[in-house]
Amino acid sequence: MSLADLKLHANVSELLLYLKCPRQVYYTYREQELMPTISSGYIEHMMLKELAMGYADVIKKAKPTKESILEELSAQFERVKSELDFIYSTELKNVPFNVIETAEKNVFELLDNIATNLSDAVFKSNEVDIIQSIMPHRTEPVLHSDRLKLTGIPSAIVQYGERMVPLSIRTGRCPENGVWGNDRIHIAALSMLVEENGGKIVEFGFVEYAKEGKIRKVKVRPEDRRQVLKIRDRVDRIKDGNLPERKEGKICEHCNFTHLCTTKSTLASKFF
User: Where would one find the signal peptide in this protein (predicted)?
Assistant: First the structure.
């Protein structure tokens, strides 16, 4: 079943969009495209995501030293560079070479730190544990639940021991401890979908911060699940036509909807 067929149900990506800006949910649902600017930063995001998909293979092939991991990581980076335009052919169409070149340079400069953090993780835990936490069993499966009225696509499903749990690859900055609040909600929503599709309770998931090569295990709490359902209901009301209150912040600087986002809030919108 395609995501287009499930449009009436909330999508996990809409929950995350709501946390950034409720009005973007309103405009994107009404078929106003939220097109990212194809900058070197956006291409870095693509490259880091693809690179992180192979971190488990890098650790598996390398010796448990930073030098060996860096060598394998560099080889993985070369593969990503050569395959990127096949994977993202639409997004990279007509992008100037210098923009791609800048992204490649910036990601290359991150490899040494990523290798350091991956080797530290193997040293502090163990190789098998780290590989299981990030080795994709299924990549980007479409998960849906009529009971939850929710659809979502995790970066991957990983088999951790006997359990199938979600993996979310994030390309932004890694917090000093734990995970960002939005990432916690993301993992909770995906865990609930994995439960519905697999029939077994999912108590945790993993967030992989690709830019730094750090992996965080996230325990899914009842409050996280409660928040997922609350945000899902708010997204549904927005999709039914309720325009939420306008928020202003840094996200507005590069928003496609600035020219549309002028309607004044109503009293009801303040409850979003």
Answer: none
